[in-house]
Design brief:
Length: 1308
């Protein structure tokens, strides 16, 4: 026998170690590893880490296999890996029902178990007896499964297993928004069993999603059916949240050594090299010790001070664990691997030598990695005095297989048996390297030839939908429907993907299906969406944002491709809007906002785009993988014909009747305005109680609109062009019109009904509106309602219609029927509409009309018109015109005919009238009315829940409602319906502001995705306050009173609203210029010295006034900044951790009646998010933003006192407001001395009248909280700055500061 090479001998040595330490424990039946000799439970996470050494060793053997026995050893090791991975797969597949349920509930009790029996793979503890929800464990399993498959192992054997793994991908894809128990199975570190969002779980899930994407589980032998599909957007959301969290682990753990597995091997989940560096440095500087790293700060596990008799900790006892936490050698193993992958030999050697010093030698000389090192009971006192000085002892398992396995991998890398690439065949380690610039391809397609020709006039040449064939263009919702077929499996009872969201990364690919190619338009372009979709400028703005996002987020093969369809509905007065033309020209130039773009046609980009195969749509389960699934086939056949074919939309217009009566108009005037609650002028910036007039009288009877989900599931968007004359009554909307004079006259009709009806009609002088006479519950005479409706039909002013409808809603409720006396008819005259009727009313053309009978309504006097169907127009208009000159007698018959409609239960409710008004207001761009009617109809932004989740997962809490009384905080993702209800409750009857709140949440979510830096040092986004500040800023810029400012604010177009929000978030100066039709436009001014004339289009200040205006602007600068920072809750850097140091030295801080107790420092660490939220909650008690900002400044002065160690303790409870008021006093004394501005108001020598005013709580200068306006407007620095006064106040108020003697005083 030939002698072995040295390397062979060395490998045999490792093989013996692996066999003795690891494989000897593997259960022969299931292939799982028990936790220890006494505990037979097998944890998913520990098992996967244990097998890594075996996998690494098998690959090392594969390289030197010069003899048969080496090949045999290699095969044997590989099969051990397969056995373990399949053992875990079987254990999880036994819980397939949980996977299915979890997709819906995401509840911790429906999650896969974290551990199984190693004997038979069955569950060992109940669903609620353990913190089972550990997304990082399932993610780690999927990640290593992908890596092993890529290295050539075959672990998955059947297509049923493939669909189970596809469902595991759905299980982890929302990791970014699911709080779990994390890598240490604890959740919140007090161990009370509260799950929290953990960065280590999100990072592991992101890595697993990327590794699984387009992976063939059958390796080289597979086909399209064994490929796993991942929606790129889900992985990207995980990445975005991860980047916003690092180096924080969770709300209660400001740092965690477990993050080492996310920034390095095995996950490599972070793409930003700087962030990797910062996270590693934070861990080393705060958690590293002589014996390894602590898991996290104040980790009580296995410390001598821990009470082993109970699982949880009391909140006050966490402080006892500080500096005596156990240290884990495991993390040195991670650090060795981290540096080996960075090929930093020096660091690898340093950690290897540190690790060897703390390893334990067994009797036969093998080095073992122990689980952890604790301070012995008797040395705890010394360790407290001098952290890190005492000798520690081993506690826990030895060897700790998780650590031992990683140690062996590190050794194999160090000795050159493995290259880093072999442990990472999917090349995840290269993620942080710089990538070349992305070129975004844009294709614009015209809906029809007419639009194509209009674009050609501007030298923009595009194709129509018909011309791009054979490529088919579909809206994003078709793609989201197709993805629901992914992962379906009847045998396993798995239903496929549940989330309906497809993001821009998914729609920027082409998709092939058999021999067809599909392009999808992005989700934001779906027009059935919310009213913000009818603002073209905003849509363009979103498009630019998405293109910019693609530049940074795209990492697939090929270039991203954005397909847009320009439709009739986008036209403005039959012209293509200028903003669109300008954007297209920019796209044509090749650059837009710093991103490289290419404008072209679909066929040009076929070769350069990413193409995904939708092979999973085949009916594999029925044995026909090459045929489409029958459901998919029917869906596509139905939808492909319809999705972009011209839907004939109708436009309903009332007769052109002039108003003849003003009798009842006054009672409704301003009905909408009365519901407003934005308060700008009043001193306390709070919300006034709702005035009794606007209380909903029928709220007990009429269910709120959003509970009736079916009521408005489909609203078609109407198109009008101004040439058609002013539209009058919004009396109808929906997919069917009353087919008035087409119904055959029924001679047997009951005469009395006709008589009664005709008398009614004459009294109305209007043929069609019929009111139910017998209403028991109304408080008003019938005539009033009838007159109102008559007025509603006459007025052409949409605002007036809005007021009348608001009044009707307040008095009658949304479901009040404005048509029909409800007579029953003989059955035979039901179904005899002539073909002409169908034609004229345009029914049957809208595929959705049948599905929504509730939306179908009746109308009177309307010129029904079908766009795109000219033959109908003539027939229907002639019907109407002859209808208007009928004699009263003919009218009788006519009304009798309309019964055919009414008896099918078709009624015109106030809600239907509102819908019509909403549509019209959208076309005419009357945004204030649009917001109000949308609110009354209970509409909700479609992405509301997603927007709120986007803010929450980036650790920003959101509050809605006006402080101080009605503020509701949202701290966890809520379902859409609950959110809408919460917002509605917060604003009472103020529908416009409730709508505006939803809209602003969507914009905030857009900004936090694209410009996270705007949100630095902000923990809570208080939408109510932001709305108030927006109104205040408008009133300041436009020089108008609060009510006018609220009106202007609510009438801003969605695009300008987003723009104003941006200026307020970024603190940039802005000006308002007036544009046509009274709309305002927000423009940045580069300096605040722009002459006022150019800025304000409303009443230009002339001459001297203009001069004063410029001076004034300089004057209110600091007040404005404090107001903005206060409303946005912005604080200085490291503010909360510095407040922690103050709290440590005093017994408490009192702010506006809330006391922050010193005990908080016992429970929480300085950098902990939970602590910051406590401080924030106390500050939020202060209703006035500028006053809140001064309190923050006072706290900053206190932190300076503690940081410079001027005094050993600050004494008892400090009342922070006392400091602010003392500073104000000192300020006013100085003002009197130097005759400053404040002598005109607060520093005046008081006489009787003045004192009265002061007593009644009004300052002359209007300053909030009895603090002079001029102090708010002082700069922080300088000898008359606020910081100077605060410091003097601290010196005077606190007893602990020495009153005499020399003090070195320097304020940095």
């Amino acid at each position: 026998m030939r002698s072995r090479s040295n390397s062979g001998v060395r490998l045999d040595y490792y093989q013996r170690i692996v066999h003795r330490l690891i494989l000897a424990h593997q259960e022969p039946v299931t292939g799982l590893f028990p936790a220890s000799n006494v505990n037979s439970h097998a944890w998913i996470r520990d098992n996967v880490y244990c097998i890594l050494a075996v996998w690494g060793l098998s690959m090392a053997y594969k390289k030197i296999a010069d003899q048969d026995e080496d090949r045999a050893k290699c095969y044997e090791l590989e099969q051990s890996c397969v056995k373990l991975m399949r053992g875990l797969l079987m254990a999880m597949m036994n819980q397939k029902d949980k996977v299915e349920k979890f997709k819906m509930t995401q509840s911790p009790y429906d999650s896969l178990h974290a551990k199984y029996s190693s004997k038979n793979g069955l569950p060992v503890v109940g669903d609620n007896e353990w913190g089972h929800l550990q997304i990082d464990a399932v993610s780690l399993y999927l990640l290593i499964l992908a890596q092993m498959t890529a290295s050539g192992l075959q672990i998955v054997f059947s297509l049923d297993e493939v669909s189970f793994i596809q469902n595991l991908v759905f299980y982890i894809e929302s990791a970014y928004s699911i709080p779990d128990y994390g890598i240490w199975e604890r959740g919140d570190k007090t161990n009370h069993g509260e799950p929290e969002l953990n960065a280590s779980s999100i990072g592991m899930a992101k890595a697993a999603l990327e590794a699984m994407n387009e992976l063939d589980l059958f390796g080289a032998r597979g086909g399209p059916a064994s490929v796993i599909h991942v929606l790129a957007d889900e992985a990207h959301k995980c990445q975005a949240v991860l980047q916003s969290m690092l180096p924080r682990e969770s709300n209660s753990k400001e740092l965690d050594s477990g993050l080492l597995c996310v920034i390095g091997f095995p996950a490599f989940a972070v793409d930003d090299a700087q962030l990797i560096h910062n996270t590693k440095d934070a861990i080393l500087s705060r958690l590293q010790g002589k014996y390894g790293c602590k898991r996290f700060l104040r980790d009580g596990y296995r410390t001598p001070k821990e009470d082993p008799s109970r699982l949880y900790y009391e909140r006050w006892e966490l402080r006892m664990f500080e500096n005596i936490e156990c240290e884990w050698p495991l993390f040195y193993c991670y650090l060795i691997l981290f540096h080996a992958f960075q090929s930093d030999k020096r660091a690898v050697e340093e950690y290897a030598s540190r690790l060897e010093k703390i390893m334990v030698r067994s009797e036969d000389g093998i080095l073992l990695v122990p689980e952890s090192y604790a301070v012995p009971q008797d040395l705890v006192g010394f360790e407290y005095q001098k952290p890190g000085s005492q000798v520690r002892e081993v506690v826990g398992r030895c060897p700790f297989l998780w650590g031992q396995s990683l140690f062996i991998l590190g050794r194999l890398l160090q000795e050159g048996f493995l290259a880093v690439g072999e442990l990472d065949p999917l090349n995840r380690r290269l993620g942080a390297q710089k990538k070349p610039d992305v070129v975004v391809q844009v294709v614009i397609i015209a809906e029809d030839n007419e639009i194509r020709d209009k674009l050609a006039e501007h030298d923009l040449h595009v194709q129509t939908i018909a011309e791009v064939a054979p490529i088919e263009v579909q809206p994003a919702r078709v793609l989201s429907h197709l993805y629901t077929y992914l992962g379906r499996n009847r045998k396993l009872g798995l239903s496929g993907r549940k989330s309906r969201d497809v993001g821009i990364l998914s729609t920027s690919k082409l998709y092939s299906l058999k021999d067809r190619i599909f392009a999808f338009t992005p989700q934001f372009a779906d027009l059935s969406r919310f009213y913000i979709a009818s603002d073209n400028e905003l849509m363009i703005d979103i498009l630019k944002g998405e293109i910019n996002f693609l530049k940074s987020a795209w990492d697939l093969l090929g270039r991203p491709l954005v397909t847009l369809v320009l439709k009739r509905i986008h036209l403005d007065q039959d012209k293509i809007p200028l903003a669109m033309i300008q954007t297209m020209r920019k796209l044509k130039s090749g650059y837009i906002n710093g991103t490289r773009v290419m404008l072209g046609s679909l066929k040009d980009f076929l070769n350069t785009s990413a193409i995904t195969d939708l092979s999973f749509l085949g009916s594999t389960e029925d044995g026909y993988p090459d045929r489409l699934h029958p459901d998919v086939q029917t869906y596509l056949d139905e939808h492909l014909l319809r999705s972009f074919s011209n839907r004939s939309t109708m436009n309903l217009r009332g007769g052109q009747l002039r108003p003849r009566t003003l009798r009842r108009r006054m009672s409704c005037k301003g009905a909408i305005k009365k519901t407003r609650s934005i308060n700008v002028d009043s001193d306390n910036l709070g919300m006034e109680g709702p005035s009794p007039l606007t209380e909903r009288r029928l709220s007990s009877i009429v269910p709120p609109p959003w509970l009736q989900a079916n009521k408005q599931s489909h609203v078609s968007v109407f198109a009008t062009t101004p040439e058609e004359g002013p539209t009058s009554s919004p009396l109808s909307l929906g997919n069917e019109l009353i087919r008035e004079n087409i119904y055959p006259v029924d001679p047997h009709h009951s005469r009395s009904a006709i008589d009664r009806r005709s008398e009614f009609v004459r009294q109305q002088e209007m043929p069609k509106i019929l009111i139910q006479r017998h209403r028991a519950e109304t408080n008003f005479a019938d005539t009033e309602v009838e007159e109102l409706i008559a007025m509603l039909r006459e007025t052409e002013n949409l605002e007036e219609q809005g007021d009348i409808l608001q009044y009707l809603v307040d008095t009658q409720g949304l479901d009040f029927n404005t048509a029909g006396l409800g007579f029953k008819n003989k059955p035979e005259d039901n179904g005899t509409p002539t073909s002409n009727a169908n034609n004229a009313a345009g029914t049957g053309t809208d595929p959705d009309s049948a599905a929504h009978p509730s939306a179908a309504t009746a109308t009177a006097n309307s010129n029904s018109q079908c766009i795109g169907n000219t033959s109908n127009i003539s027939s229907s208009s002639s019907n109407i015109s002859n209808h208007n000159n009928m004699s009263p007698h003919e009218n009788n018959h006519d009304s009798s005919q309309s019964e055919g409609m009414l008896e099918e239960g078709r009624v015109v409710t106030v809600r239907d009238l509102l819908k019509g008004l909403y549509e019209k207001a959208c076309q005419q761009k009357l945004w204030g009315l649009v917001r109000h009617t949308a609110g009354m109809l209970g509409k909700r932004v479609e992405d509301l829940a997603k927007a709120v989740t986007d803010l929450l997962v980036r650790q920003k809490q959101v509050t809605v409602g006006m402080p101080p009384n009605n503020e509701h905080t949202i701290t966890a993702p809520l379902p859409e319906v609950e959110l809408r209800q919460l917002i509605h409750d917060a604003y009472g009857d103020d529908e416009s502001t409730a709508m505006l709140t939803q809209e602003l949440m969507v914009y905030l979510a857009m900004f936090i995705r694209t410009e996270p830096q705007l949100f630095h040092e902000m923990l809570r986004l208080r939408v109510g306050l932001i709305i108030q500040v927006m109104a205040k800023e408008l009133s300041r810029t436009l020089n108008c009173d609060g009510e006018a400012a609220s009106e202007h604010l609510l009438n801003l177009s969605p695009f300008e609203m987003k723009n104003l929000l941006y200026h307020i978030l970024s603190g940039k100066e802005f000006a308002v210029s007036s544009v046509a039709r009274g709309n305002l436009s927000i423009v940045s001014c580069k300096s605040s010295r722009v002459s006022k004339k150019s800025q304000i289009g409303l009443g230009d200040p002339e001459g001297e006034d203009a001069l004063i205006a410029t001076i004034d602007d300089r004057q209110g600068q600091w007040l404005r900044r404090r107001r903005l920072d206060g409303a946005l809750n912005r604080v200085p850097r490291d503010f909360y951790s510095r407040v922690w140091t103050v709290l440590e030295k005093c017994q408490g801080l009192a702010i506006e009646g809330r006391v922050l107790q010193q005990s908080l420092t016992q429970e929480m660490t300085p950098g902990e998010l939970k602590f910051a939220l406590e401080v924030e909650t106390a500050l939020n008690q202060i209703p006035q933003p500028e006053y809140r900002q001064l309190v923050v400044e006072a706290l900053m002065v206190l932190t300076l006192v503690t940081e410079h160690n001027m005094v050993p303790t600050l004494g008892g409870i400090i009342y922070v407001e006392h400091l602010v008021h003392k500073a104000n006093q000192l300020f006013l004394e100085d003002q009197r001395k130097v005759q400053g501005d404040a002598t005109l108001c607060c520093a005046k020598i008081k006489d009787g009248k003045e004192q009265q005013q002061a007593a009644s709580g009004m300052l002359l200068c209007g300053g909030a909280a009895y603090i002079c306006q001029h102090l708010y407007d002082s700069a922080p620095s300088g000898s008359y700055g606020t910081m100077t006064y605060m410091s003097r106040a601290v010196a005077l108020v606190l007893d602990c500061v020495p009153k005499h003697g020399e003090m070195e005083c320097a304020i940095s």
